[in-house]
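User: Before I run my own analysis I want an independent prediction to cross-check against. Here's the chain; please return only the structure tokens and, at the end, one sentence I can use as a sanity check.
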Amino acid sequence: GIARLDAETNGGAKVSVDKATGGARFVQLGTRRARGPAAPARAGVQQGSRRERSREFLGRRGSIFGIRSVAAELEEVRVDTDRERGTHITYRQRYRGLPVFAGELKSHFNSADELTAVSGTFVPEINVNPTPTRSADEASGIAVRKVEADLGRSGLSVRGSELLVFRAGLAQGVAGPNHLAWKVEVGDGLGVREFVFIDAHTGKFIDQITGIY
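Assistant: Structure tokens:
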């Protein structure tokens, strides 16, 4: 995929690889020399054509990130314009309708309306049962007990929970397994806010992120 991209852009593309996923994390495209979706656009081009060219590129070259189906795996969530009149289209990764934690890609257009880069994290090769064996209440109980034991205190409560796909080791930059997980927010509304990830099939603790230091 990288070799085909290099040929398509006449050697103008640069690709950085994410050690945790094995897929691309940053693709910089050469401008003005590139062909296809990265080519300079006509004057007066509308927002819709940026979306089309972004999706066309991801459909043609998305395999370097690990994308198999743009329609099924990427959900457009935001379009931003920066001070230099560049446009940035943000996609959230989904697996069989579920969000993938930290799975997000962005397509970047410059002020000349050229697609210059695609960056972010895409978790490839997910194959988990999307129907949880453990309920949100079970996971919440496990999460609360874990945080209370860690902090040596009681009276904490669940502030919310969400079912998602969680890739272990992603934040640490190392390869790890994919889990169907409950993301449980545990806190006291003041100085404690912990996000605990519990495997939705086994009920085992996976990881924890501190929201307040």
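Sanity check: The mean pLDDT is 91.
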